[in-house]
Design goal:
Order of helices and strands: HHHHH
Largest sheet: none
Distance between the termini: 41 Å
Strand content: under 5%
Number of helices: 5
Helix content: over 70%
Number of strands: 0
Structural class: mainly alpha
């Protein structure tokens, strides 16, 4: 392990110094050479560790990205299902309030996804403006849908839900690429 390698290098260097003090330059040079070789091995070990650490980080980032895409797809399907439910009812339907509550819950659930998207966009500046624009549009349309539902305007609400899905799908497609 690295600690052992470091100790061996230190010992070789101490031995080299003692040999120099004892007027044995050839032996000193040999000990110094051994220390140098061990340092090169240690450097390779450190580079290998760093490489595997970066690889693990990339795997974790990739998994986070997959999870984010899955969450966006689920959100889109849930929005579509809710939109279709609204298209089949009238204002007077007793399920109207229940469905409106589901829209509010979708809005709340999307917050976690949005936080992850914004965090990602801060790390990957190339997607920052796209993510910001689509997240803002998704919020604007979800809020608009909720406003229309308060006024019991189902067709306008479902139109806004459709635009919400468009933004969600745009984000999922961009991340999937």
């Amino acid at each position: 392990d690295l600690e052992e390698q470091f100790e061996e290098i230190s010992e070789d260097q101490e031995q080299s110094q003692e040999e120099l003090q004892d007027s044995q330059p050839a032996k000193s040079q040999q000990s110094q050479q051994q220390a140098s070789e061990k340092m090169k091995e240690m450097k390779k070990s450190l580079q290998s560790m760093q490489s595997s650490s970066q690889s693990a980080q990339q795997q974790e980032n990739l998994q986070n990205l997959r999870d984010l895409v899955d969450n966006l797809v689920t959100l889109s399907f849930n929005q579509e299902s809710l939109m279709n439910d609204f298209r089949q009812i009238r204002q007077s339907d007793p399920r109207f309030n229940e469905l409106s509550q589901q829209q509010l819950k979708l809005k709340e659930d999307s917050g976690i996804i949005q936080d992850s998207l914004i965090s990602l966009s801060k790390r990957v500046f190339q997607i920052s403006s796209f993510v910001t624009r689509e997240v803002n549009e998704m919020n604007r349309q979800m809020d608009g849908s909720l406003d229309e539902l308060k006024e019991k305007r189902i067709s306008q609400a479902t139109g806004k839900q459709q635009f919400t899905m468009t933004s969600i799908n745009n984000l999922a497609l961009m991340l999937d690429d």
